[in-house]
Amino acid sequence: MDDGRPAVALGQDLDPGQVAALYTVDARPAPPGRPWLALNMITSVDGATAVGGRSGGLSGDADRSVFHTLRGLADAVVAGAGTVRAENYGPARAEPAVIVTRLARGQAPRPRIVVVSGRLALEPTSRLFAELGPDDPRPLVLTVAAADERRREALADVAEVVDVGQRSVDPALALAVLGDRGVRFALCEGGPTLNGTLVAAGLVDELCLTLAPMVVAGDSARLAHGASPATPLGLELRHALVDRGELLLRYTRA
Predict the structure, then answer these.
(1) Could you report the per-residue pLDDT of 31-84, keeping only the tens digit for each?
(2) For 142-170, what is each residue's pLDDT tens digit?
(3) Would residue 1 count as lying in a domain?
């Protein structure tokens, strides 16, 4: 990619190392006051982000390699509460070799999970909190001052709860909070409403998109949903990979 042209690879069984290399080759410099922000999403050819309410029905081996590679690089994994519930999030995990690499880079052994929830619609008994190990970082829940106090108190024992707005989440303030906590690379895994909020605020630096080789119809939301930005987010293609029908695309802000 040094010559400015996107890397292209076609294959039927791409080596996970080849996939990982193209997602790690570029630097991700944190902008002033906030982390570098990447969105990682998968959609069907017709734009659906889920099958039966979950993204797992779209994903293949290559997409899962991208998922694990990006989590291995990120300081924090950010998701909306709806995605956390639908996908049954647990604490972030990493293979021993990944942990060694992270420690060598000066990172924590595993990325911190960050949940954006204006209503605090999260159960303290869910996997995300109940399966925390003694060395796992407590999840960070970003909410608003107007959130229900009983829910706030219930989560206070299992998470760090921080207000990033009065009645609606301020995305710029949310990223500033992450920056204050030493996060330099934040990976957002959706859902579409949170993605749309971040796009509209002009805060997205990178988009990693897997196009699954299927058409599902239905009423699934688009990759980014909600208010439109004043200016559409222009992107530059960094690479395109094909593995058993899956199209792996990586873009950065133009």
Answers:
(1) 999 999 999 999 999 999 988 888 878 989 899 999 999 999 999 999 999 999
(2) 999 999 999 999 999 999 999 999 999 99
(3) no
CB contact burial 130-156 (16+ within 10 A = b; e otherwise):
eebeeebbebbbbbbeebeeebeebbe
Domains in the chain: how many in total? 1
Contact yes or no for 181/34 (Cβ under 8 A): no
Instruction: Flag whether 156 is in a domain.
Output: yes
* CATH code of the domain containing 55: 3.40.430.10
The amino acid sitting at 235 is L
Establish whether the linkage from the previous residue to 191 is cis, with ω within 30° of 0: yes
Single pTM value for the model: 0.94
Answer yes or no: is 194 within a domain.
yes
Residues ≥6 apart with Cβ < 8 Å to 137: 108, 110, 112, 113
Residue 98: Cβ within 10 Å count: 17
Residue 238 counted as domain residue? yes
